[in-house]
Write a structure and sequence with these properties.
CATH superfamily of the largest domain: P-loop containing nucleotide triphosphate hydrolases
Largest sheet: 8 strands, mixed
Helix content: 25-40%
Distance between the termini: 77 Å
Number of helices: 19
Number of domains: 3
């Protein structure tokens, strides 16, 4: 027998189903589950990390419990070794422990070998001396461990590209000759989250010791088809009740507010659960490469001293708007800012998607020089701006060689309230739905789009709400302003309300 076949036989001989309609019955692994074990244990390179991702309610935690017991007391056990599982909360950490403890309690053989320690969330094999601990992200005991095997349960709940708990455990496993980590989780909401980063790297095949199985409905498939359900849910029609799943599908179809949650949890797609202004599928449909147009309209969202500043240019061509986005952050503390916002600003800066200004705060001189050069190389018709920090930029624009008359003529105040933003968002939404935007999949702008949440008043007016949004939305604010300017001048009619008073002209550098 191969290593995987030996492990399959052990699970089916000694483990039982811990809960559900088949509770207490001997385990009969499905073919897709056996396939996962073969991928993990018969890897000719030796598996260091295995990632298995599918929709919720496909018994992912039960499968993780089988693997855990396999390494605690089965053929994979190493005498006197440590095993751990990680989760993002104490309640989630307890789920895997309790399932494994139920299997032990109901198995005549395992119940004699393993001692469950319920208060500490531990399992101890008295004969092998192996010890399993359940850890959570809010536990202070993560450091100091030296596990040979780890299960990372629902790693998709980690927001951003880093997790202190995951890193601590993964580094601690380096002391062993043949350590193994298993990640079993539904997908994370965004590309920038840790699980997405791990999955994408594994799919690229950068390390043959990392294996991945991703059961997910493609973004371009009909989310309300049975095919989509089957692709993301390997247990569909078996121990996953198709009637209940189809009810969730129908509810999401009737109530758009539920669609994002359904896509993430059931179809295992990377979709933000808190319905954003623009869905991921609509945003992706507008991902064509933008043309390098000469006539441009802009939206400028100036930041506070150390936050993200965004300039988005919209250029009309062939019935669509080509969008180019430029972002700035202070050079000093960029890595710390990346950790705080949980997005890879440092990597984006190296790739050229984020420009850095010297020092600890945004240098308006750098932005002014960029804009002045833009006026030299492009036919800049209008740039809309939020007046909050414009008084600091204006003197730098003058120093960069721009005349006051040119500034007054080409720069336009754009309010951020309901009056200006409602028609601007309506225009942007219409263009996105009709696939008339080409943004080139700029990752920083994509992040802003995924984060953007709207706030509505009692009569249905809308504006982008930074407080309710998941993270930075500066790029979407700038995009809304740029599109409004371009659409207004192209169609010779008002899109937004212009304040009667121009921005403050008196400011000193």
């Amino acid at each position: 027998m191969t290593r995987a076949e030996r492990n399959i036989e052990w699970i089916e001989r000694y483990c039982v189903i811990p809960e559900g309609r088949f509770v207490g019955q001997p385990v009969v692994l499905r073919e897709w589950q056996k396939g996962e074990l073969r991928k993990i244990y018969d890897n000719p390179h030796g598996t260091r990390t295995a990632i298995v991702s599918f929709g919720k309610k496909n018994a992912k935690t039960t499968l993780a419990a089988f693997l855990l017991l396999l390494h605690l007391s089965g053929p994979e056990a190493v005498r006197n070794s440590q095993l751990v599982s990680t989760a993002q909360s104490r309640d989630q950490a307890a789920v895997l422990f309790e399932l494994a403890a139920k299997i032990v309690r109901m198995s005549p053989v395992l119940s004699d070998l393993i001692d469950p320690r319920y208060t500490q969330k531990q399992l101890y094999d008295k004969e092998m001396g192996t010890l399993y601990r359940a850890l959570s992200a809010d536990a202070s005991t993560a450091h100091g461990q030296s596990p040979i095997f780890a299960v990372h349960d629902e790693l998709g709940q980690v927001k951003g590209p880093r997790s202190e708990l995951y890193t601590a455990i993964d580094n601690a496993m380096g002391a062993h000759d043949r350590p193994m980590a298993v990640v079993i989780s539904t997908q994370a909401p965004t590309d920038a989250d840790l699980l997405s980063v791990l999955i994408d790297d594994a799919i690229e095949g950068n390390d043959p010791r990392v294996v991945v199985s991703l059961y997910s409905a493609p973004m371009d498939i009909d989310p309300f088809s049975e095919e989509a359900l089957k692709l993301a849910n390997p247990a569909y029609g078996d121990f996953l009740n198709p009637v209940e799943v189809q009810k969730q599908q129908n509810d999401a179809k009737r109530m758009p507010a539920l669609e994002a949650l359904f896509r993430n949890y059931t179809l295992n797609q990377r979709v933000e659960a808190s319905a954003p202004f623009v869905t991921q599928s609509v945003w992706s449909a507008n991902g064509g490469m933008p043309d390098d147009g000469h006539v441009v309209y802009g939206g400028l969202d100036l930041s506070e001293s150390n936050d993200l500043t965004a300039l988005v240019l919209a250029s009309p061509a062939h019935g669509k708007l080509s969008v180019h986005a430029t972002f700035w952050l202070p050079e000093y503390g960029l890595a710390e800012r990346a950790r705080k916002d949980r997005v890879p600003y440092d990597s984006w800066a190296k790739a050229g998607y984020v420009s850095t200004t010297p020092g600890r705060s945004i240098e308006y001189e750098s932005i002014a020089l960029y804009i002045a050069d833009l006026f030299e190389t492009k036919d800049v018709r209008k740039i809309a701006f939020d007046r909050w920090n414009m008084k600091h930029l204006r003197p730098w624009l003058i120093r960069a060689g721009m005349s006051e008359s040119l500034i007054d003529d080409r720069f336009v105040e754009f309010g951020q309230g309901f009056q200006s933003m409602t028609p601007a968002l309506r225009t942007l939404e219409s263009l996105l739905l009709s696939e008339r935007i080409k943004h080139g999949n700029n990752p920083v702008l994509k992040m802003c789009a995924a984060n953007a949440v709207v706030k509505a008043d009692e009569v249905g007016n809308r504006k982008l709400d930074k407080k309710k949004s998941r993270g930075r939305i500066d790029g979407m604010v700038a995009l809304a302003m740029a599109v409004a300017m371009a659409y207004e001048h192209l169609n010779e009619r008002k899109v937004f309300s212009v304040p009667s008073r121009s921005f403050v002209q008196s400011a000193s550098v």
